[in-house]
Amino acid sequence: MKKLILSLLLSAVINLINAQAYYTKNGYIAFYSKAPVENIKADNNQVLCILSAQSGQLQFSLLIKNFHFEKALMEEHFNENYLESDKFPKANFKGTIMDIKAINFTKDGEYMVNVSGDLILHGVTKKIYVPGSITIKSGKIYIQSKFIINLADYNIHISNAVKNNISPTPEISVSCNLDNIK
Interior CA angle at 29 toward 17 and 40, to 5°? Predict the structure, then answer.
């Protein structure tokens, strides 16, 4: 985990030299599946996020095994049967805030944004477009977004035996409080 964080931070810092950059290694991403039989929620509080205020580049990286569920059996099935976290241990997103020039990072305020980038999940890379918000308050950056993914797009298959237990289109929630890299 330390090597992953260090290599991502080093890579991002090299790419962001002379740029105002923000990061966290404790970002939050939730997975929520609403289905007829039961609702399933998983939380991951160990998400690395890096943002370049100059270019609008935005990166997220997380370990799949850091998602935690209310029931241990759900967590086991998630890791072994669906996300296959031993084979595909990480999920990554690398994208760009489309309207970065409209954000004044020196002034408190809330900005609605659109982000375009590649989500890498379960060994599959797919271009996605998601809405979000960036709130600037006292020099801190708060990022939030909610969007839907289609599990089939990432070759994540739900067996017929549990198709009423798991939504094929779960909601993903993102929330990160970023600090300035100095």
Answer: 165
